[in-house]
Amino acid sequence: MVRTPLTPEERERGERLGRLLREARRERSMTEVAAGAGVSVETLRKIETGRAPTPAFFTIAAVARELGLSMDELVVHCALVPA
């Protein structure tokens, strides 16, 4: 299956999400957060670095729950603001 290339806006949203998750993780290790969310460390690493700019909804929901973030917070922080 060939993926459609991401738009610059989609890449930017993925970078915003990654920054938010890194900041929310604070001093916790990736291993601890990934285990608590039920995802692999590599998946969390890809999301945090923006290499997975469109992760699955349930993956993000699990990571957000583990970090104490609401889905509303994610939307507000990661939504693209029209120019």
Q: Structural class of the helix and strand makeup?
A: mainly alpha
**First-last Cα distance:** 33 Å
Write down the secondary-structure element order: HHHHH
Given the C-alpha coordinates, what overall shape results? globular
How would a crystallographer describe the biggest sheet?
none
Round the mean pLDDT to the nearest integer and report it. 90
Q: Evaluate the radius of gyration.
A: 13 Å
Helix content estimate: 55-70%
Q: How many H/I helices?
A: 5
Number of strands: 0
Ranges where pLDDT stays below 50 over 5 or more residues in a row are none
Q: Strand content of the residues, in percent? A: under 5%
Structure description:
With 83 residues, this protein is mainly alpha-helical. 65% of the residues lie in helices and 0% in strands. The chain has 5 helices and no strands. Helix 2 (30-37) packs across helix 3 and helix 2 (30-37) crosses helix 4 (57-67).
